[in-house]
Predict the structure.
Amino acid sequence: MALDQALDTYWLRVTPSMTRVGKHRMLCLEWYAGHATARRCRTTWSALSAACHYRTYELPPSPAEIHTRLLEVTDLLAVLCAPGN
């Protein structure tokens, strides 16, 4: 939720129309926030999304994996909310 909210806040600051469609805001992030930030957002969001959806054929993420992803979210919040970004 924090990553989604940070993306909404980021897009409201950059271009408000981008908050309407979640898929577009992730695809266009590379051109606005840079390749590295966009890649980190996609990877983190995908991993956390997968962790929240139960799949009988996959092992759930370990607590260490979840902790690592949450630290990544904290770093991304700082990047997305930084002035000038």
Observations:
- The two ends are 20 Å apart (CA to CA).
- DSSP finds four helices and no strands in the chain.
- The helical segments are 2-14, 22-33, 35-52, 63-81.
- The CA atoms of residues 79 and 85 lie 7 Å apart.
